[in-house]
Specification:
By secondary structure, the protein is α+β, with helices and mostly antiparallel strands. 55% of the residues lie in helices and 13% in strands. It is built from 10 helices and 4 strands, in the order βαβααααααααββα. It has helices at 14-29, 41-48, 51-57, 62-78, 94-102, 107-122, 131-140, 145-151, 155-170, 200-209, and strands spanning 4-9, 33-38, 178-185, 188-195. A hairpin with a 2-residue loop joins strand 3 and strand 4 (188-195). The chain is globular, with a radius of gyration of 17 Å. It starts with a strand and ends with a helix.
């Protein structure tokens, strides 16, 4: 039986940039499947994790400062470029994540766009809060950026982003990425949620068990 992993993500999260790339060989090596699920991490924070905002506002927060050094080390370990933070950080991601929702039914196209958008933000320091930048990124990879931008204004797409976010929170999410793996406990099937890039070894373990 093929194990299907669900990967809830927001393009504004640097840890998600790492995990997005690092989970792919795990999926391939285990002959698993993955569903990319766009959500709004700000909505998650507002609902269940408002401490994040306080941490950002405290320049002497040792854990927060140290996390930037560790972030660069994780990127180096993964062989990923990391030109971060930029003047656009923290970026408002609602436009970008609505565009991702417009692509959600086409997982190949969503993966392609997310890859390009991650590179645009974390390598080239482009502003993902600018609809014109999002249109350009989509056009650069052969998608119809103008049509996708128009879809982001449709109520159905706005509702999908809200629904994905609420769904993730209901399942236990508190940040991005939130990764859900089917998990066998005796004869009972449940699921495990894992958070962030550093828990990917546990994702690998859970896939094998699931």
């Amino acid at each position: 039986m093929t194990v299907t992993v669900e990967f809830y993500f927001d393009l504004s999260s640097p840890w998600t940039y790492l995990a997005f790339h690092n989970i792919q060989p795990i999926i391939k090596d285990n002959d698993a499947a993955i569903i990319w699920k766009p959500f709004l991490v700000g909505g998650v924070f507002n609902a269940v994790n408002q401490d994040v905002y306080a941490a950002r506002e405290n320049p002497d927060n040792r854990k927060f400062v140290h996390s930037f050094h560790v972030l660069k080390d994780w990127a180096a370990l993964a062989g990923l470029p990391m030109n971060f933070p930029s003047e656009h950080h923290p970026v408002k991601s609602v436009h970008a994540m609505r565009l991702c929702c417009a692509l959600e039914e086409d997982q190949v196209a969503l993966h392609k766009f997310a890859t390009a958008a991650f590179n645009a933000y974390y390598c080239d320091r482009r502003n993902l809060d600018d609809p014109e930048v999002l249109i350009a990124i989509a056009n650069e990879i052969g998608l119809d950026g103008e049509a996708l931008a128009a879809q982001t204004q449709e109520q159905a797409i706005k509702d999908r982003l809200r629904s994905n976010t609420e769904e993730a929170v209901a399942r236990g999410a508190y940040g991005s990425p939130s990764i859900f793996v089917p998990f066998a406990e005796g004869e009972r099937q449940s699921e495990r949620m894992y958070f962030g890039n550093d828990q990917l070894p546990l994702v690998n373990w859970a896939i094998k068990r699931g």
